[in-house]
Please model this.
Amino acid sequence: MAFLPLKPIPIKDRNSMIFVAMGRIDVRDGAFVVIDEVNGERMHIPVGSVVCILLEPGTRISHAAVKLAATTGTLLIWVEEAGVRLYSVGQPGGARSDKLLYQAKLALDEALRLKVVRKMFELRFGEAAPERRSVDQLRGIEGARVRKTYELLAKQYNIMPMHLTQFWPILIV
Model:
């Protein structure tokens, strides 16, 4: 049977995580299967249905399962019992750095950074950012607008402003 590359399911459409302890994870019929070696029971995990599989002590995982996890973008995390400590994490989908390098380029080039900040301002407020403003100036304008929005929402829903909440116990007494 030829290997067909799979397109990972978007994270928003997956279950968040599953803990596996005292079992063996392998691949059967193209899906993850957890085999309970004590009782001989099997549990199938649909391919790509979870964001991550947490492997607790006593769990073994086959090479085929690790390969399937990488192909489907399922993160593997080796943890202590109940996830108390983290020991190791796999890199789903391979270790690509192209997006990280692109973000670094945008952050380090002042002109590109200002262009990104202006676009974010437009997305947040539905209007173009004021011309000839620095990143810090736009940040200040944004902060003032957000505070004003919070104030209006507080009045609309009859919520006490945050600066008065520190006196709340005094007002009750």
In short: The CA atoms of residues 22 and 88 lie 18 Å apart. Residues 167-173 have pLDDT under 50 and may be disordered.
